[in-house]
Amino acid sequence: MANERQPSFSPDGRYLAYVSDESGRNEVQVQSYPDVGDKWTVSTDGGTFPVWACDGRELFYRSQGHLMTVDVRTEPGFNAGTPRVLLDAQRLAAYTEPFDVSPDGQRFLFVEDVALRQNKSLVVVLNWTEELKRLVSTRPTR
User: Is there a contact between 98 and 92 (Cβ–Cβ < 8 Å)?
Assistant: First the structure.
């Protein structure tokens, strides 16, 4: 029995990308929706956290420490191109959805795993409410 998780609907609502370990390792798969029919394995070397581009023409996912992209077509039916490395993603958080893509498909928001930083520091602000009061009281009024 395969574990299937991390669902992501295509912008047109006709396909569902998800992660399945049916092959023995995590792979990104796409299946038609709501009529369950054919399914396609999109990743070629493992994959997790599939995210669709807002225009539905790309699917992004994480694989082997990289952020991957694959061109897809959903009309008239589903077709996926060859996955390619988009950028290094070694420091992405592994425990949650580590990224999202902007509506224009040109920018990404990443959740970084700070435990992987070389320069580790922690800033603790005590009495922050007092500092806020001080800043507000010194602000010029109109």
Answer: yes
pLDDT tens string 9-54: 999 999 999 999 999 999 999 999 988 888 999 999 999 999 999 9
Tally Cβ neighbours within 10 Å of residue 8.
19
The two beta strands, 27-32 and 39-41, are: antiparallel
- HSE-CB for 36 with a 13 A CA cutoff: 1
Vertex 66: Cα angle to 26 and 32 (nearest 5): 45
- What is the DSSP-derived secondary structure letter of residue 83? -
pLDDT band at 116 (very low <50, low <70, confident <90, very high): low
CA atoms of 17 and 10, how far apart (whole Å)? 7
CATH of domain 4-114: 2.120.10.30
Nearest of 65, 67, 62 to residue 27 by alpha carbon:
62
111-to-26, 56, 94, 98, 118 alpha-carbon distances in Å? 21, 23, 9, 5, 16
Half-sphere exposure of 133 (CA within 13 A, CB side): 4
d(CA 133, CA 88): 43
